[in-house]
Amino acid sequence: MKVLLHICCAPCACYPLELLLSRGYQVVGLWYNPNIHPCTEFVKRMESVRKLSSVYGIKVIYFDTYEPEKWFRAVAFREEKPVRCQICYSMRLEMAAAVAKKGKFDAFTSTLFYSKFQSRELMVPLAENASEKFGIPFLNIDFREGWKEGIELSKEHGLYRQQYCGCLYSEKERYCPKGKPKSDWVVGQILQEAERVKEHFG
Ligand code: SF4
């Protein structure tokens, strides 16, 4: 069976890949994540997926242009959770279904179904809608059962492990939940900057 696996990030893809490949599926990855901001983070995560693809020997289709505008327009005035995430999931799952249909795959799924930080309850109906809309089966597997194994694998492979979900709003929720930077984070940034200055000037 030929499966298109939408990849949200490299660490989340380890366990799903192990599982799908062990079942003998032919897997091709899809990098389509207009929700990852800013550009430096987008590139870091995409490069980590390139590393992952060579570790597992899989092909990946890349939407490698950084164009967050479409994403920001889609969530405008709906920036609160869970509506924002629903829109964000839908964009990516629909793209996965569309690409899978066009590429004559047998089914599609996403590494989003591995993450304990994402809402499976919200995503399953969206994936089913995408499946119906594009006429391509959704491979519904709850990859969360391999949560610990996936973390170990991502460390073993030396993959970049991000600190926030992806969008600027999630970055704000991580570091400035009330609009003010968390004090421990500020101190960390100052110390890092001091280290950089020390390295630079000796
Ligand atoms: S928190 Fe994550 S899932 Fe939710 S909108 Fe942001 S990037 Fe998308």
From TrEMBL:
It is an enzyme of class 1 (oxidoreductase). It holds the Pfam family QueH. InterPro entries: QueH. Its EC number is 1.17.99.6. It catalyses: epoxyqueuosine(34) in tRNA + AH2 = queuosine(34) in tRNA + A + H2O. It comes from the Bacteria. The keyword Iron-sulfur applies. Belongs to the QueH family. Catalyzes the conversion of epoxyqueuosine (oQ) to queuosine (Q), which is a hypermodified base found in the wobble positions of tRNA(Asp), tRNA(Asn), tRNA(His) and tRNA(Tyr). This is Epoxyqueuosine reductase QueH.
